[in-house]
Amino acid sequence: MRAFRWKPVDVGRARAVYLATAFGRELRIARVAAGLTQAQLAQLAHVSQPEASGAERGAVGISLSARCRLAAACGHELGWRLYPTSTVRLRDSGQLGIAQAIATAADSSWAIRLEAPIGPGDLRAADMLLSGSGEILHVEIERAIVDLQAQLRSAQLKRQELARTDDRPVRLVIAVPDTRASRRRLAPFHELIERTLPIPSRLIWRAIQQGDAVGGDGILFVGAVRRDRSPRE
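Above: the chain sequence. Below: its structure as tokens.
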């Protein structure tokens, strides 16, 4: 029998119900603590009383704007944050092509794993691990540079956990498509890259192709795959 696998849409719906219920419970407590009736709360928040009632009952369909106004009317502020729970599969995120290009170019001395678990009880995964005799390359694949500092920090936290379970140095490699858009996005972070990701792409490629140690962290630009099956550096 195949194991049941929750789909992201199902997980998202279940989480929405949970958060709406939690919001309703906290909203009611905040309203009572503020000495407001439900009608007064609705008036202050510029929503209808049925909408305020629905929010307190945990209705999912209340808009974010209405929720923020209801919270503000009670003297509170609604906050949102994203917390990592699991890693999107490489195939689902479109990163698999970059991973395959790296694996194709890699010397046979590297032991390669895709979507490698960070550790026991940790739902995160490293996009790619290349394990050699002297070091481990932890490759995080970023198809788009949206916020380099945040993306780098997330990768560094993963690398930190990986390093706890192995005596070999764990080198962080951020792999990005070799496009003008990627280089343009990275340009403003020249100083940050020199400080935290100093190993140039050409040296990382050479180490991967020859089975040598990289010796540090860096950014790897991954281009198209040539007919000889080696990715363009």
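The chain has ten helices and five strands.
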